[in-house]
């Protein structure tokens, strides 16, 4: 796959540290992304010896480890903070650590760098891209803008720094409706890159002057409406937690509108909101919840509400890029001080404005 970005992820500026485990790390060619083989760092189990070495290296670097909700369980468990992309970036902006290790995909590490330009930001594998972010390049956005010169650009947080730099306001799945509703009603809007979230915003705001880019995340798009309907029918008492990026989101609203699924069972939630709703489901004594998003989220949900039976709508909905952040990759990252993420200052300044305008709207909640 191609990481579409204007940033450099290079050998970096940090000196390497010795680690007795490093010699076991190797690049395995077998890991396959949606666009073909991408490989990943392997050779080390996420056991207690590894965890102790990660903690030692982290202290030596004065680093903080941030992990997205879709990461492997052992990566989530060793992290100082686990959450969604925006919440992690805001933690990154406030940390006293010298080094931020972002266990997520590339655009997320870029966002951390945009909000923390004076920190060193590392990602354990620079090839961990994102099919959604890749579905709208800066060149494509510039051309789209030229067709609608008076339009305002609203971009989902899952975009490269270069795309954010051409954006008026960013949004998350929590606040996309509020962001768009707060823009002048007579201004056309270019919304990208996620078509499912864009359709959700069109429905909720009732605006007919929103142009939606036809991008998608291959993982979320793979959670289909028919699959959701089948799983809902098999589990008539289960609540449904659905991420608005999912291919099934439109179907869920349709099925609820038609009375095929009880609307009270359908909850459209960002990943951050899912954790809140999980606690509420536990307090209300709910037995089972079907979850329509990437399967890594189940680890967090089960952690906050162990008495609720959380089951995936599609158990194959695993992001291959998130799963590139292996125990071996994290060890290599901390030991060698790589892969460093940098964003050109002029791009970062414009991108930061788009993110800060979103935060000013309120309820930024979470991205993915
Ligand atoms: S799950 Fe989809 S949107 Fe999220 S990082 Fe993976 S490819 Fe990108």
UniProtKB/TrEMBL annotation:
InterPro entries recorded: NadA, NadA_sf, Quinolinate_synth_type2
Keywords of the record: 4Fe-4S, Cytoplasm, Iron, Iron-sulfur, Metal-binding, Pyridine nucleotide biosynthesis, Transferase
Catalytic activity: iminosuccinate + dihydroxyacetone phosphate = quinolinate + phosphate + 2 H2O + H(+)
Subcellular location, principal: cytoplasm
First-level EC class: transferase
Record pathway: Cofactor biosynthesis; NAD(+) biosynthesis; quinolinate from iminoaspartate: step 1/1
Free-text remark on how the cofactor is bound: Binds 1 [4Fe-4S] cluster per subunit.
UniProt key word Transferase: yes
Gene Ontology BP annotations: 'de novo' NAD+ biosynthetic process from L-aspartate
Cofactor needs: [4Fe-4S] cluster
Sites where the protein binds [4Fe-4S] cluster: 130, 217, 319
Recorded GO MF terms: 4 iron, 4 sulfur cluster binding; metal ion binding; quinolinate synthetase A activity
Entry binding sites for iminosuccinate: 68, 85, 156-158, 173, 243-245, 271
Enzyme Commission number, as recorded: 2.5.1.72
GO CC entries: cytosol
KW rRNA-binding (keyword) present: no
Subcellular location: Cytoplasm
Database matches in HAMAP family: NadA_type2
Family, as annotated: Belongs to the quinolinate synthase family. Type 2 subfamily.
Protein purpose: Catalyzes the condensation of iminoaspartate with dihydroxyacetone phosphate to form quinolinate.
Name of the protein this chain belongs to: Quinolinate synthase
Gene: nadA
């Amino acid at each position: 796959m191609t990481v579409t970005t204007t940033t450099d992820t290079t050998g970096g500026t940090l000196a390497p540290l010795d680690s007795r485990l490093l010699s076991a790390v190797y690049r395995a060619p077998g890991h396959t992304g949606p666009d073909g083989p991408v490989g990943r760092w392997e050779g080390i189990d996420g056991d207690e010896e590894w965890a102790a070495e990660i903690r030692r290296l982290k202290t030596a670097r004065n680093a903080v480890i941030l992990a997205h909700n879709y990461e492997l369980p052992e990566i989530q468990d060793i992290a100082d903070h686990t959450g969604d992309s925006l919440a992690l970036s805001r933690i990154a902006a406030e940390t006293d650590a010298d080094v931020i290790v972002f266990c997520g995909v590339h655009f997320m590490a870029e966002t951390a760098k945009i909000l923390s330009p004076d920190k060193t930001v590392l990602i354990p594998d620079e090839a961990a891209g994102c099919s959604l972010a890749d579905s709208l390049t800066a060149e494509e956005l510039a051309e789209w803008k030229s067709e609608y010169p008076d339009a305002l650009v609203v971009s989902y947080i899952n975009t490269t720094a270069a795309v954010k730099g051409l954006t008026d306001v960013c949004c998350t799945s929590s606040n996309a409706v509020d962001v768009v509703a707060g823009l002048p009603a007579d201004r056309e809007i270019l919304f990208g890159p996620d078509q499912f979230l864009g359709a959700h915003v069109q429905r909720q705001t009732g605006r007919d002057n929103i142009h939606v880019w036809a991008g998608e995340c291959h993982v979320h798009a793979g959670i289909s409406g028919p699959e959701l309907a089948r799983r809902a029918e098999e589990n008539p008492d289960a609540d449904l937690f659905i991420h608005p990026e999912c291919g099934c989101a439109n179907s869920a609203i349709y099925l609820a509108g038609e009375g095929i699924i009880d609307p009270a069972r359908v909850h459209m939630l960002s990943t951050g909101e899912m954790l809140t709703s999980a606690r509420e489901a536990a307090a209300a004594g709910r037995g089972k919840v079907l979850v329509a998003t990437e399967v890594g989220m189940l680890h967090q949900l089960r952690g906050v509400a162990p008495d609720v039976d959380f089951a995936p709508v599609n158990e194959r909905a695993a992001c291959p890029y998130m799963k590139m952040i292996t125990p071996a990759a994290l060890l290599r990252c901390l030991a060698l001080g790589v892969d460093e993420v940098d964003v050109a200052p002029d791009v970062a300044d414009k991108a930061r404005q788009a993110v800060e305008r979103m935060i000013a709207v309120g309820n930024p909640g979470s991205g993915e």
